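Sat 14:20. Reprocessing the chain from the morning session after the first attempt stalled halfway. Input below, unchanged.
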Amino acid sequence: MNRRYRLSSATDFQRVWRTGKSYAHPLVVCAVCENDMDVTRFGVTTRRGIGNAVIRNRARRRLRAALQQLQPQVANGWDIIVLARPALLDADWQSILSGITILLKRAGLLEKEHERARRSTQRGH
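Finished this time. Tokens:
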């Protein structure tokens, strides 16, 4: 995922957890907060309870890959943090994509295909 779309500072993470709304799924927890920017930024995190550093890094890589695939469908102007749960380690790829998609839909952040198509035709693309 391009660094432009990543949350990296601790203050941004704290702001999203404190002021944002969170959504839970058996594989991941997602917290969302508006950011007053023209891009949506993603933060991926794990907790030590998941396992050692190798396992935590694997979980973060899988989440980043899933978010990179879903990123074009996500509405602009949001900061999103995705927290891996232990069940993510045993989940297959489709389950991970499905879990994140469900949470983004619940948060109302996935743009519908027809809205994106309408906007792109209005811009002349």
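The longest helix spans residues 53-70.
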